[in-house]
Amino acid sequence: MTIKDDKDETTNKEMFATVCRALSNPIRLRIIEHLKDIDHCVCGEIVDILPLAQSTVSQHLKNLKDAGLIRGEVEGPSTCYCLNRKMFDKFKKMVQVL
Fold first, then answer.
1. Phi first, then psi: what are they for 16, rounded to 5°?
2. Among 9, 27, 35, 62, which lies 20 to 30 A Cα-Cα from 75?
3. Lateral strand order in the sheet of 78-83
4. What is the pLDDT of residue 71?
5. Averaging pLDDT over each range in 9-13, 55-59, 71-75, which range is the top one?
6. Three-class secondary structure of residue 68 per DSSP
């Protein structure tokens, strides 16, 4: 039982570090704020609010998605992004434990 608990704790710490890295970039924080305000968004709309190339925005979205902070669903030729609120709730709990 202790081994399982150690593994779960290690997994949680790795997840916490991954989320912290994803949130450590001001552009990604701006994307998160935008998605929080409008609840969902197409990649092109995010490109319009940022002074960055579409490929750069896509890389930031990939980082956020890989960290589990956002979800992306394909809708025709574009992808619609939204916050993964469950991950944010989990992250808040991890911060409180610190």
1. -60, -45
2. 27
3. 41-42, 78-83, 70-75
4. 94
5. 55-59
6. coil
What is the distance between the alpha carbons of residues 83 and 63, in angstroms, rounded to a whole number? 13
- Phi, psi (degrees; rounded to nearest 5) at 70: -130, 160
Could you give the C-alpha distances from 34 to 30, 31, 52, 80, 88, in angstroms and in order? 6, 5, 15, 13, 15
Q: What ranges do the domains of the chain cover?
A: 2-97
The predicted-structure confidence for 19-67, as pLDDT tens digits, reads as follows: 999 999 999 999 999 999 987 888 888 889 998 999 999 999 999 999 9
- For residue 78, give the 3-state DSSP assignment: strand
Check whether domain 2-97 has CATH 3.30.470.30, yes or no: no
